[in-house]
């Protein structure tokens, strides 16, 4: 048996965990740049909790609230300039995957004046600024990963930064911040977390130490997604479970990375503006179906989700996702060429060829 496990982030989970552990926030630095989207952090109470602790300790801060969905390279460069001009020395990212991923890239650019190629290289002369992560959705797991996914308009796609230097220093996971999420966001982010754990469990990079994390996440998410498919509003306990399972899924992909699902999902998000978690969900059944004959672990996933067979997985996804988006043959060809060149294709066992990727797209959306 061989494996490597590395998890430098201090994960603090529980309701009111920021207030209860304020001393950790207070001693991180002298002035943070708070990075958020435009509205959600104000609505769910997360921004108030952070600013209350900072105010109690007389710590000044700056606030960048212009992170868009699927943040761009241009946006994180703008925020890094503000970080430097305002004299900040660490970053607090609050929100879903977009603000957290943006915070990581901003941390790199705050300490390194580099071009785009060097930004995506994952290797930096100067250590990025410290990051505190406060997730307010249960899906991306960014609070536990060394990844930042950005919209890179130069290549007309999304592109990832992978570096152990951008693991958050501390992550505060408080499920109460997810209670204001609409049903669609709750479903899409939960599917994103499921995709992480499923891909990680089936990845060529899966190890004996990380697979139990994936299976526990899959089992929890299976139950929650079943209840969501019936139209049930998540209970307080389910909100806790979803955030915990999403965190586990983040730990999984921090060691295994993602696979073909994410490689194929990025063009759907960039070109067709399909939510990232939904894009993964649209592809997930056909991906698992592609692997079933040669990958014995597929049946373990079905069992953990308490489904009778693979068709049960398909039915669950269809209930959750509803009517599928359209795709043309021209789009199939373009997205397939983009996906097959992505580095995470190599984590898939077996590697799909170009025609197999095309068929997964065709089976996942409505071809017109």
Describe the overall structure.
The chain is of the alpha/beta class. It has 16 helices and ten strands. The chain has helices at residues 17-20, 22-26, 40-43, 46-56, 73-85, 97-111, 116-119, 183-202, 211-229, 236-256, 260-272, 276-291, 297-304, 310-321, 329-340, 354-364; strands at 10-13, 32-35, 62-64, 90-95, 130-135, 147-152, 157-162, 170-173, 326-327, 366-367. The strands form three sheets. A six-stranded parallel beta sheet has the order 1-8-5-4-2-3, covered by helices on one side. It has a two-stranded antiparallel sheet with strand order 6-7. A two-stranded parallel sheet has the order 9-10. It is globular and about 60 Å long.
Biggest sheet descriptor: 6 strands, parallel
What distance separates the N and C termini? 49 Å
Give the CATH level 1 class of the largest domain: Mainly Alpha
CATH homologous superfamily of the largest domain, by name? Dehydroquinate synthase-like - alpha domain
Cross-sheet strand order for the largest sheet: 1-8-5-4-2-3
Assign the CATH architecture of the largest domain: Up-down Bundle
Low-confidence stretches: none
- Number of DSSP strand runs: 10
The H/E string reads EHHEHHEHEHHEEEEHHHHHHHEHHE
